[in-house]
Amino acid sequence: MFVFKILNTNQLPKCLCYEQIRSLRWSSRIPKKVYSQAEFDENETLSPSSTSTHKEFVDMDSKKSNYPTTFSFQNKNNKVTDNNNNKHEVDTKILTLRKPKKKKNTTDMLETSIDVDGNLIYTKMHDNDARVAKILSNLKSDKTLRKEDSILLEGKRLITEALQSNCKIQYILFSKKSDVEELKPHLPKRGFSLYKMPYREMQMWSNLTTNPGIMGVFKMPEINQQQQFEIPLNVICDNIREPGNLGAILRTCAGVGCKDVILTKGCCDIWNSKVVRSAMGAHFKLRIQKLDWHNIKENLNNCNWFIADNNKIHSSKNSTVIIDKINSIPIESYDTLKYSRSNEITLVIGGETEGISEEAYSIVHELGGMRLHIPLANNIESLNSGTALSVLVFEIKRQIKVNT
User: Fold this and answer.
1) Under a CB-based contact definition with an 8 Å cutoff, are residues 19 and 50 in contact?
2) What is the 3-class SS of 77-127, one letter each residue?
3) C-alpha–C-alpha distance, residues 254 and 287, integer Å
4) Domain boundary assignment for the chain
């Protein structure tokens, strides 16, 4: 068996067996030298120092053959092009072509801010940008947001309220630059990121039916710090499980100027997206705490206690002992009592489904409190929790202002 050395190529196999040479359609190629089997075997056993000579021989029958990895097909006529742009006609059945590996996109998301000239520096993202999912996938889950101590706000108004309350901003996503320009007076110079993205992408990830075109992610603020208040009124939300109702209650409490808002264990998450939208920024204007009834009693035992009650007792929900306690608590119309600033007031408002808890009735009975009743017409049994609270707290505020 003889082995032929092929001329004028650096990329194709240079040493082929005779039978394989015949299968190649290289009619214009003439071997420069023919090696005997002994000469070929001698070259195969060369020392590492003769690597360059060793690489000129390729045994096509060996399973360890080294084939070029940079061939690219030009047409359907079995022609390939090497690294030097030389075209070669070759039998494709004896070549093993390897596709070059694609380089991974390692572009990092850059943290952006506002430059010294007041220009917005932002990262632009296109349709189906992988960074969009990386940012927004965590925002769709309330559980993930709580784990990262983050909150998601949609719309310029809520974002402005958070910025004015000195909440730490992490990043803003927007579709129109003009929306961010309106927020610029409230934005910090650095320490947050801006991302411009297509509106339809933002709409897909939004919690709203119609996305406002701008979303902000903030670190969860400390809302249990002392805030300014107008009247010495504490509102306890007992079993408020509807997010829309809780948001309306927080908004009313902020509007009337309450001292504290306390949530019991049965209430829904205060940072639920529906609660945040219904409250319209009230979260940043109130001192909100979540306490159990034991701590509530210890902290507010010197107050005048009232329960917003519709004067209806559901015997199926309450035990006989609790019903006796409820009946022993005096009930008055909300507008017949006299309220003054000298005595701090604690008002308990219950959810529409669960109502007031037995713990609340027990504490009010023990501390000598009262039930407040709102007279209704047309056989209407009760009002929405947010509406009932509004009627009660604004009457309390009116009397305190008059009697001061």
Assistant:
1) no
2) CCEEECCCCCEEECCHHHCCCCCCCCCCCCCCCCCCCECCCCCECCEECCC
3) 10
4) 3-94, 123-219, 233-403
Q: Over range 104-119, report the average pLDDT.
A: 59
CA distances from 22 to 15, 17, 26, 96, 257 (A): 13, 9, 9, 19, 97
176 neighbors 196 (Cβ within 8 angstroms): no
Helix then strand then coil, in percent of the chain rounded to 5, is: 35, 20, 50
pLDDT above 90 for 40 = no
Q: If we measure between CA atoms, which residue out of 280, 233, 263 comes closest to residue 351? A: 263
Q: 301 or 41, which is more confident? A: 301
Q: What is the pLDDT of residues 188-228, one digit of tens each?
A: 888 898 999 999 888 888 888 888 999 999 998 876 666 77
- Where b means 16+ CB within 10 Å and e means fewer, 295-334 reads ebbeebeebbbbbbbbeeeeeeebeeebbebbeebeeeeb
What would be the CATH architecture of the domain defined by 123-219? Answer: 2-Layer Sandwich (3.30)
Q: How far is CA 7 from the centre of its chain?
A: 63
Structure tokens at 339: 């309220």
Answer whether 307's CB lies under 8 Å from 360's CB.
Answer: yes
The pLDDT-based confidence of 314 (bands split at 50, 70, 90) is low
When pLDDT is cut at 50, 70 and 90, the band that residue 187 belongs to is very high
Is 348 in a helix, a strand, or coil? strand
For domain 233-403, the CATH class is alpha beta
Q: What's the burial of 116, exposed, middle or buried (CB within 10 Å: 0-12/13-18/19+)?
A: exposed
pLDDT band at residue 245 under the 50/70/90 scheme: very high
Write the pLDDT tens digit of every residue in 316-356: 456 777 888 888 999 999 999 989 888 899 999 998 878 88
Distance CA 385, CA 208 (A): 24
Tokens of residue 240, six digits: 């408020």
